[in-house]
Design brief:
The protein is mainly α. Helix content is 72%, strand content 6%. It is built from 7 helices and 2 strands. A two-stranded antiparallel sheet has the order 1-2. A hairpin with a 2-residue loop joins β1 and β2. α2 packs antiparallel against α5. The longest helix is centred in the middle third of the chain and has 28 residues.
């Protein structure tokens, strides 16, 4: 079991690390192709917490501006989830159906938020979070069985989607952009293969 010692003051704190297969990397087992889905999950969890705060504060005063902000964020997450589901369908990778359930729960939560039905919205957002986590496991397991070209396409899509998360005003990626990302990934993987094969030829 891998572990690190992190020193806080003069007291050592033992921190257990996840198995290498979960972390990925060189010699660390299967690589995760869709880190983007992890980020969507983190954002869904964040928005769920925001909704819980809204429900608590609404007993004193209803903050309409904050309600609109949380609802808009949830709607954006639903759109991102829908885009990912469509992409997986195009690749023929399992998980799209579960993502569609997550999207449906998110959109229902948006309606509940706009109607100030916070307890209902909280339950719907919890459902969405559960579906997203289930979809992550299903997608990752299925991607490991796919051909290299499919995994490359997933990584290219993942990279572009994560860039969009950090650039909210950026327009949707185009097919030429995806093609360019695929070319870059292919070059990177070929370079790694040459590096590994080099010493073996000597």
């Amino acid at each position: 079991t891998d572990a690190e010692l992190t020193f806080v003051g003069i007291r050592p704190v033992l921190r257990t690390l996840p198995p290498q297969s979960a972390r990925g990397g060189v010699g660390g087992g299967p690589r995760r192709e869709l880190i983007f889905l992890d980020e969507v999950i983190a954002r869904q969890r964040f928005n769920l917490n925001q909704t819980i705060r809204l429900e608590t504060r609404s007993k004193v005063k209803l903050d309409i501006a904050q309600v609109e902000k949380v609802a808009a964020f949830e709607n954006k997450l639903a759109t991102q989830t829908h885009d990912l589901a469509d992409f997986l369908i195009g690749l023929g990778v399992d998980g799209a159906a579960i993502l569609s359930q997550a999207e449906e729960a998110m959109l229902s939560a948006v309606d509940s938020l706009n109607g100030a039905k916070f307890p209902t919205a909280i339950n719907q957002e919890r459902d969405a979070l559960r579906f997203l986590m289930e979809a992550r496991d299903t997608v990752q397991m299925n991607l490991q069985k796919q051909a290299r070209a499919v995994r490359q396409a997933a990584r290219a899509f993942d990279r572009l989607q994560r860039q969009k998360l950090r650039k909210p005003n950026e327009k949707a990626e185009t097919l030429p952009q995806i093609a360019e990302e695929l070319a870059k990934l292919a070059e990177e993987e070929d370079e790694v293969a040459r590096t590994i094969a080099g010493p073996m030829k000597r």
